[in-house]
Amino acid sequence: MKTMNVSLVGVGGQGILLTSDILAKTAALAGLDVKKSEIHGMAQRGGSVISQVRFGEKVFSPIIPDGTSDLLVSFERLETLRWRHLLAPDGKVLINDMNMTPVTVSSGQQPAVADLEARLKAEYPGALYIDAMALAATVGNTRAMNMVVAGALSTLTPFEAEVWEQAIRERVPGKLLDMNIQAFEAGRKAVL
């Protein structure tokens, strides 16, 4: 298999790093070589976060060159535009249908993006949208939103749901496991 490049982007506190850890573990459990990188400057203050996961027969670098992400997974709509340059021409986009007001906008340092909806439709006409917050609420905890996104993401990868669930079991604490598995399954069902 050719090396697959997945960029996960969003805002600090959305569970992006855990989701990328689970994707990396899933690929490793499937017997592939995996490399992962992450940047989370100011993440705890609602800043931009990106994690990149590459997997295949042999992966030499964790960094995904611009314009070569097979999948762009965005946990927040505005971040989808910020990281547009990462997507390959034939890449797929998964967008969590959520708006988070950046600190620079709420503090008055920058104006809000007025035409976000139109810009998303123009840039990503074939994007797959999911309302992860609402689906996470149905399993009892909106903090499981990232596992809903992981479930939707799983349908875009070559890995079986059972391998994903094994990775979740190995990475998520026992007391939160059932809820996270339910959130993962809700995300899968929403896009299948």
Structural class by secondary-structure content: alpha/beta
Number of strands: 6
H/E order of the elements?
Answer: EHEEEHEHHEHHHH
Biggest sheet descriptor: 6 strands, mixed
Radius of gyration over alpha carbons?
Answer: 16 Å
CATH architecture: 3-Layer(aba) Sandwich
Question: In percent, how much strand structure appears in the residues?
Answer: 15-25%
Can you tell me the CATH superfamily? Pyruvate-ferredoxin oxidoreductase, PFOR, domain III
Instruction: Name the CATH class.
Output: Alpha Beta
In helices, the fraction of residues equals 40-55%
**Mean pLDDT, all residues:** 91
- What is the CATH topology assignment? Pyruvate-ferredoxin Oxidoreductase, domain 3
Q: Indicate the low-confidence ranges by residue numbers.
A: none
Shape: globular
Number of domains: 1
Strand order, largest beta sheet: 2-3-1-4-5-6
Distance between the termini: 24 Å
Count of individual helical segments: 8
Which labels suit this protein?
Pyruvate-ferredoxin Oxidoreductase, domain 3, 6-stranded mixed sheet, alpha/beta, 192 residues, globular
